[in-house]
Amino acid sequence: MTEKTWNVSLTEIQKLQALDRQAHLHSFTDPQAMVQAPPFLMQKAAGSQVMGQGIQLLDAMAGLGNVNIGYGRAEMAEVAYGVMRDLSYYHTFAGITNPWAARLTELLMEIVPSQFNKVFYANSGSEAVETAIKMARLYWKREGREDKHLIISRDFAYHGSTIASSALNGLRVMHEDFGTETSEDALHVEAPFWYRFGGEMEFEEFGRYAAKCLEEKIIEVGADNIAAFIGEPVQATLGCIIPPKSYWPEIERICRDHDILLIADEVVTGLGRTGEWFGQETFNFSADIMTLAKGLSSGYQAISATLFNDRVASVIEGEQGVLQHGFTTSAHPVACAVAAQNIKILQKEKLIERIRDDIGPYFKTKLEELLDIPIIGEVRTCGLMAGIELCQDKETRDQYPLEYYLCQHIAQAALETGVIVRPAGNVIVTCPPFIFTHEDVDALVRRLRRAIEFVHDRLK
Ligand code: PLP
Question: What's the domain of life for this entry (predicted)?
């Protein structure tokens, strides 16, 4: 953005807000609230900072947990510009490809867990999940076991906003308006959410217990009816729920024993967020299908990927006939080039190693200082993602009523102190860019503390 557009006048800002408010229906926004307050006009971003309406904020959410390499990188813009001039668009239907799709595929095959040898491209995380579901069904159909159609997900899961992916979401409010809670195709089991549901159990013991809930559900419903289990290695969106180390290997064993496909939704965790390239490495398991999106392009372009191991890919490819699935902009040349450049930056600047060895541990240590505040019950971190859980009583871990909207108030107060975090029920989530410095972590913790204390001081 040029200086000119950044320095727009107040009248211009108001005009843009009015234009937007007239006809733009916003994602995950209360339209009634937009009648009361104009939209916030975000105008510029660089590194870990975002700016709008004359205000500069430290973005401890990396947009929506996706701007991993930070904002405003000139090399990303240059790559996009060059490709747009060479091949602004061509589709990949009917066996056509482009150089950038081919090169991204080569690069992905070098970095993904070794069982994945095939990739399908789409535009969003929801579409990647949708693709995973359809391919799991296709796999079983081709195996002559069409009854295996159900997908099992978990409470507190977030898998997307299209009908099939949102049916997997584990929060009732997301289903009520669309009838997806009655979807016969998605079932839910308990999340490995120790702080809320662990009771007297030890952390690792609870991991095994939570995995057992899946096994019980499979036995109840019948493995002959189940196509796959899907899970985020860390349940990021709805509270940064970090499972015990005992959880995922046990889930993998259960899926294998009952002949159910395992889908790792790595839309958030993929490409470094956990301090390893993939969540499967952090939590020591191997899925049959994996989804990637957010960190694939760091938000510079809309692109997602679904990857398959040989078992699934060989069956999908094993029969003649057109694969009845795809998107106009699948493997878009510009998006593929930008994603490849993003991966090269992660590699060249060793950003993931830096999370593991330096900024991740510092982020954990500093955030844990917040535990001295009476209403902070748990600070859980994994790589560069954290959930800061509120409680009414540290002993009993009792929650405040959700109707108090305490985390919304804290996130609002944090904006006043200059930092962006996200509320998720009684959890404050932060998911900063990988380029976060020690000073950025200090600023996040200092500003968040002021916001939490501000709200705590007013609690009656
Ligand atoms: N899967 C996971 C784990 C996510 O966190 C999200 C989005 O937050 C999605 C899927 C959906 O991605 P998108 O919003 O790009 O459709």
Answer: Bacteria
Banded pLDDT at 460 (limits 50, 70, 90): confident
How far is the centre of ligand 1, averaged over its atoms, from the C-alpha of 208 (Å)?
26
Q: Which helix (H) or strand (E) holds 413?
A: helix 406-417
State how beta strands 150-154 and 186-189 pair. parallel
The ligand 1 atom at the shortest distance from the C-alpha of residue 128 is 10
Ligand 1 in reach of 161 Cβ (< 6 A): yes
| d(CA 222, ligand 1 centre) in Å | 29
Q: Is residue 252 exposed (0-12), middle (13-18) or buried (19+ Cβ within 10 Å)?
A: buried
Other beta carbons less than 10 A from residue 205's beta carbon: 14
Strand partners, 376: 390
- Predicted confidence at residue 214, as pLDDT, reads 98
Q: What is the number of residues in the chain?
A: 460
User: What is the pTM assigned to this prediction?
Assistant: 0.97
Strands 422-424 and 186-189, sheet pairing:
unpaired
Q: Is 237 in the pocket of ligand 1 (CB under 6 A)?
A: yes
Task: Report whether residue 166 contacts ligand 1, using a CB cutoff of 6 Å.
Answer: no
